[in-house]
Amino acid sequence: MTPDVPLHLAAALRRRDHLLSPWPWRALAYLATTLPVAGPLSIGLLVVGAPLVAVLNTVRQDRPVELPIVVFLTVVALLVLASAPVVSIAVAAVERWRLRLVDPRPLHRPRFTGLVARYTSAAAWREVGHTFLLGGLVPLAYWLLFMLVLLDGTLIVSPWLASGNDPVIVVWTTIDTPRQAIPYAAVGVLCVPALVYLAVLLAAGQATAARWLLDGSADTTALREVTRSRARLVDAYEAERRRIERDVHDGAQPRLTSLTLQLGLARLDVPDDSPAARPLAVAHEQAKGLMVTLRQIVQGIRPQHLTELGLAGAVRELSGAATIPVYVHADLGQPLPEVVETTAYFVVSESLGNVARHAHAGRAEVRLTRSAGGLVVEIEDDGCGDADPARGSGLTGLADRVAAVDGRLLLSSPPGGPTLVRVELPCPR
């Protein structure tokens, strides 16, 4: 599993080698399967729209329009609008199936309770909007692309077209011989990758619009507000965590250190056979134990070596303290936001702890990679596998911690191993 594998066509467009990947072929398949759907829709809209345009043009020219024609066209337009939510059911179903050609990500399907919901829900009217998009704008874009392809094809075959007795017009020039047509043919060949890229770009734009219109998840506004609220809570938690860390480090810890030092000095002044020697020794040991506990608490809030060494250095320290060999590969580049570093650190720490407790592994590997979308953390071991979040709270807690910063956790752990934990944390460059 590599972190830079594109999950959909729009992401593949950002890769330099996308023309050599399977994505252009998938895009062309998506464009080809659009024609049987968009063709009938465009014809239907043309049958309805052409008379309406003619009537509007007549009105614009101040010519009289017969009332029966206006009434008839109005009724037809209303019938089309009334039937659109029903027609869009089949169109949306076909589009959700076709969309997997260029975007395999899950697409939420809205649930409608009865025919009335087709006329009252926002999701249904978004499907109607997608239907009109397929019947109206998409054919125009495809026609423009077809004309460009036809023009490029004419340039490529121009040497053969010019081999006859009649002159041939290529673009704006008239050619008489195949030799004159060779430069145009070369330009046509060089334009083929650009046309392929343009076709892929058209497919990506159409797929993005279709996903936006057909995704029947919860209300977008509500989701945005939930996301903002969660971000505010995470920021507030981080601020409170830093305040507690500062108060403990600057307030309680120095005072406890001073108390431990005073108890140690007092033990030196009290004879060993004194009745107070034993209680004083117990108090001194308890104070030292409390010091260790307090350091662990501060360490649990935000490890000091994470602040000093950064994520890669802190993870290497974790690997050095592990009970099995742990190999760390880090390719981070720019510094990461504090909340992302902290989350990634505790993901690695908890995962290595799970490996030590449950995996019976001989080795483990940690990979930290900065991708276009954020930070990717992978922890892989050669243990017995069969990790199940339902059997304990460790993986569930990790997933909750990752979700709090809008990330996601993926787990692959077949029986017999290996186990791979992959965490993707959003962190734009």
Describe the structure.
65% of the residues lie in helices and 9% in strands. Helix 2 packs across helix 8. It is built from 13 helices and seven strands. The strands form two sheets. The protein has a five-stranded mixed sheet. Strands 1-2 form a two-stranded antiparallel sheet. The two termini are 22 Å apart. It has three domains: 1-217, no CATH class; 230-301; 308-426, Histidine kinase-like ATPase, C-terminal domain (Heat Shock Protein 90, 2-Layer Sandwich). The longest helix is centred in the middle third of the chain and has 50 residues, at 220-269. It is elongated and about 120 Å long. The protein has 429 residues and is α+β, with helices and mostly antiparallel strands. Residues 218-223 have low confidence and may be disordered. A hairpin with a 3-residue loop joins strand 4 and strand 5.
